[in-house]
Amino acid sequence: MARLTLLDWPVLRQLRGADPTGRGSAVTSARTRSTVPRTSTADGMAESICPYCAVGCSQRIFHQDGKVIQIEGNPESPVSRGRLCPKGAASEQLANSYLRQTTVRYRRPYATEWEDLDLDTAMDMIADRFIEARRKHWEDEDEQGRSLRRAMGIASLGGATIDNEENYLIKKFFTAAGAIQIENQARI
Ligand code: SF4
């Protein structure tokens, strides 16, 4: 740290410099002057939407070496105008938390431990169960012969991190399969 002299005294800086009211450069410490934004070393920035709730605040996601390093509000957004609530402002932790699961985890019936599954195996298991449940619980018509054409054994329950386009596809897919219980938190 640089050695301070009498001329660095804020009152003298205030009287000698261009900040006579002492509300700017005259009272800014060397440490504050040397402070840079944590985004200053970013390789780039991508705009996105906060994954948490239906407000749909816009985010600026700064990255470096292929990793998210900071997420901030996007002032270009007509929805949020640069603001994020505390949850949205902390969403960098969603990307970088050491608790984040990055593999498919599966606990077999009656097992006491979880195990990793590769994604293809997990997807095949889900598809098999979906088809089987649809086949088993398909209702073609009611007891009076009126057309039902529905599958009561399958349903979709989404979450806040599913966006508008994904919801559109999920709704189309499940409705086409005959499901009528399809719920999700709305996204903009
Ligand atoms: S920043 Fe907060 S209010 Fe905005 S979308 Fe995210 S969770 Fe919702």
From TrEMBL:
Cell location: Cell envelope
GO cellular component, one term: cell envelope
Gene Ontology biological process terms in this record: anaerobic respiration
Top-rank taxon: Bacteria
Cofactor: [4Fe-4S] cluster
Domain 4Fe-4S Mo/W bis-MGD-type: 43-99
Amino acid composition bias (Polar residues), ranges on this chain: 26-40
Keyword Iron-sulfur tagged: yes
InterPro entries attached to this UniProt entry: Mopterin_OxRdtase_4Fe-4S_dom
GO molecular function: 4 iron, 4 sulfur cluster binding; electron transfer activity; molybdenum ion binding; oxidoreductase activity
PANTHER family: FORMATE DEHYDROGENASE-O MAJOR SUBUNIT, TUNGSTEN-CONTAINING FORMYLMETHANOFURAN DEHYDROGENASE 2 SUBUNIT B
Protein name per its UniProtKB record: Uncharacterized anaerobic dehydrogenase
Organism: Brachybacterium faecium (strain ATCC 43885 / DSM 4810 / JCM 11609 / LMG 19847 / NBRC 14762 / NCIMB 9860 / 6-10)
